[in-house]
Design goal:
It is built from eight helices and 17 strands. By secondary structure, it is α/β, with parallel strands linked by helices. It folds into two domains: about 90 residues, Translation factors (Elongation Factor Tu (Ef-tu), domain 3, Beta Barrel); about 160 residues, Nucleotide-binding domain of ferredoxin-NADP reductase (FNR) module (Rossmann fold, 3-Layer(aba) Sandwich). The radius of gyration is 17 Å and the shape is globular. Bound molecules: flavin-adenine dinucleotide and FE2/S2 (inorganic) cluster (FES). The site of FE2/S2 (inorganic) cluster has 12 residues, from loops.
Length: about 260
């Protein structure tokens, strides 16, 4: 199987979108699925969400944070990625909802985007709240418009064009005036914990997408172990989405810190 890079777009200083030929993955891909990517034969496998899947190609959006994402960013159109395994994980499936609020921080927007797109196509009323540190980090601005009825972009730095603040403030504002059936949150662990607490307060199911270290992505290594509902689960095969109320965020924060993992 050849995984040729068909397009490459730099979205901000450190974030790239790549379309990669992978017809057999497209066939089964749904929102919420991810792939394990190895750039070179001797390289490590890393998990990346399938941001889009159409025709013969998948789109991945990734932020350069270390060795493999850096190597991936150096590949160009026409180059070939050594290995892609997927689709992996469970797709995000919520029957019979009328309103969905997708809340995503930073590169987490790459994971929120396909969820919003799928539910918008199903006729669900989607609000997309995308949070960034500053204006220079914003990406996919037009795309969020296309996959939501209402889009809010927050930035932490002062801004005339966008909402100054964070996604938690924006959610609190929305919940004052609107009905939300389900919240989907993806970002840093403290952010997802805070969003889950707000959801609980308003009795709204909050689904979070967890990002522990994944080594094989197929349930064999135990690297992605998370405590959900008092039991050990593997995020790669049991998730990566879970009911936020059941997630032991403090244990996961401590475990990720052991790997010095910070989702920025
Ligand atoms: C299900 C899932 C979906 C993801 N989707 C995306 C996405 O769409 N876009 C995106 O930019 N990032 C995504 N990530 C995070 C991405 O996998 C890591 O940023 C990437 O693995 C870093 O690899 P590296 O070699 O470049 O960095 P490294 O130098 O190896 O590590 C940099 C940081 O990333 C963490 N990390 C390293 N390897 C992994 C791993 N295998 N799993 C999780 N974290 C790791 C490390 O703890 C470290 O803090 C996802 C993670 C998960 C679990
Ligand atoms: S990544 Fe190995 S068990 Fe999940």
């Amino acid at each position: 199987m050849s995984y040729k890079i068909l397009s490459k777009r730099q979205l901000n200083k450190l974030t790239f979108a790549m379309q990669i030929e992978a017809r057999e993955i497209v066939t089964n891909a749904q929102a919420g699925h991810f792939v394990m990517i190895r750039t070179h034969q001797q390289g490590e496998r890393i998990p990346l969400t399938i941001a889009d899947a159409q025709g013969d190609r998948i789109t991945v959006i990734f932020k350069v944070v270390g060795d493999t994402t850096s190597k991936l960013s150096q590949l160009e159109v026409g180059d070939v990625v050594y290995e892609i395994i997927g689709p992996l994980g469970h797709p995000f499936a919520m029957p019979k909802i009328q309103t969905l609020c997708v809340i995503a921080g930073g590169v987490g927007c790459a994971i929120g985007y396909p969820i919003a797109k799928q539910y918008m196509q199903k006729g669900v009323d989607v609000t997309f709240i995308a949070g960034f540190k500053d204006e220079s980090e914003i990406f996919y601005e037009q795309e969020y418009h296309q996959v939501s009825n209402q889009r809010i972009i927050t930035v932490e730095q002062p801004s005339e064009k966008y909402v100054q603040g964070n996604v938690v403030d924006a959610l609190n504002h929305i919940l004052k005036t609107q009905n939300v059936d389900v919240i989907f949150a993806i970002g840093s662990l403290p952010m997802m914990k805070a969003i889950t607490n707000i959801g609980e307060h308003h009795q709204i199911l909050t689904v979070v997408s967890l990002n522990p270290i994944m080594v094989d992505g197929i349930g064999m290594c135990g690297g992605c172990r998370v405590n959900v509902g008092g039991q050990a689960h593997f995020a790669c095969v049991d998730g990566p989405e879970f009911d936020g109320r059941l997630v032991d965020f403090d244990a996961l924060i401590a475990r990720n810190q052991a790997y010095d993992y910070r989702w920025k």
